[in-house]
Design brief:
Structural class: mainly beta
Low-confidence stretches: 196-202
Largest sheet: 7 strands, antiparallel
Strand order of the largest sheet: 8-7-6-5-13-12-11
Strand content: over 45%
Radius of gyration: 18 Å
């Protein structure tokens, strides 16, 4: 369904991986949550019949799996992905319920190799209208800024940000997730309106 005016969507999204990956990152000290970038570098084609629009460009496909709800394992996280001619960089900044905060960077090149490295200290970014805090690793705070806020909800924000890591300027799709906020009853009451579920007929 579309927003703010409800209407049905009809179309096709085709994701063509340019690089395949099977390396999975364990996100928490207990090993209950895992993340994998299945296609860190991909081509995406979108062809919609309703509404009648189409576009194509670079893309990405990942997956999360876990043995418990996310809000049981984390109070929140900040994640971002930046792609360039050489490959894709993914930055993770996690706050587990148990154990210290954890930050890492993964670099996927276009030959399929992956390299994990430490990240610099996070720089604060302006919060959203819903009060979601945002931050991103940066060599220096002056290198970090929000270019555009793409999605602003009571517990989640998606943005386009600029930063610099290890001397490399990055323009990244960025998300901040507040799982303390997500678990609050008033937010749970809003979820069916924000993410409606359709019952399938048998």
């Amino acid at each position: 369904m579309t927003c703010p005016r409800p209407a049905h969507l009809c179309g096709r999204v085709r994701v063509t991986p340019q690089v395949h990956n099977s390396y999975a990152l364990t996100l928490d000290p207990a090993g209950r949550h895992r993340w994998c970038a299945l296609a860190p570098c991909a081509r995406v084609e979108v062809a919609m019949a309703k509404p009648r629009v189409h576009w194509q460009g670079s893309g990405y496909l990942d997956t999360n799996s876990g043995d418990e709800p996310l809000e049981d394992g984390f109070s929140g996280w900040h994640w971002s992905r930046a792609s360039d001619a050489g490959g894709t960089t993914v930055l993770y900044d996690l706050t587990p319920r148990q154990g210290p905060a954890y930050r890492t960077a993964l670099r996927f090149d276009r030959q399929g190799a992956v390299r994990q490295q430490d990240t610099p200290e996070p720089a604060s970014l302006p919060g959203t209208r819903w009060g979601i805090r945002r931050r991103t690793p940066a060599d220096a705070p002056e290198h970090a800024r929000v270019i555009e806020t793409l999605e602003d909800t009571p517990f989640y924000a998606r943005s386009l940000v600029a930063t610099q890591v290890d001397g490399q300027p990055l323009e990244a799709v960025h998300e901040s997730l507040d799982l303390d906020r997500f678990a609050r009853p008033w937010v749970q009451m809003l979820l069916p309106f924000r993410m409606p579920r359709r019952r399938t007929r048998r």
